[in-house]
Amino acid sequence: MIARNNNGDVMATAALDSLGAASALMAEALAFRWCVSLAKDLGFFRVVFETDCLQLFEAWKKNKQGVSYLFSVLNDCRDMVSFFTSFDLSFVRRSGNSVADFLAKNSSKFSNVVWIEEVPPELDLLVTSDVLASMAF
Model-level pTM? Predict the structure, then answer.
């Protein structure tokens, strides 16, 4: 997870290990729940979450109900988002999500660590290039 303000400044960075999820979709859903909870704990009120997992994005937007563990995790998220004054989830391609992708690929190295207003040194260049790329539009 990387949290930025509307100027692109880093507010927080965090990583979580996969929690032994049975599938990639469940790993994404569990990470999403963890990020929503963390954003709430950090006191963020207006949030936009981005995911490169199309299945998670579609499951969230369709708001389908079911008895599977996936639906239980998504319902937990729905309960938590009422805390925020503004909330949205958007889909971005992996190439547009390079910082979060790097953290996910290295989650065992950075697991369960939260950096406030900073990033691990290995991410400095990626964060800078992401901000510059977003300013180009």
Answer: 0.82
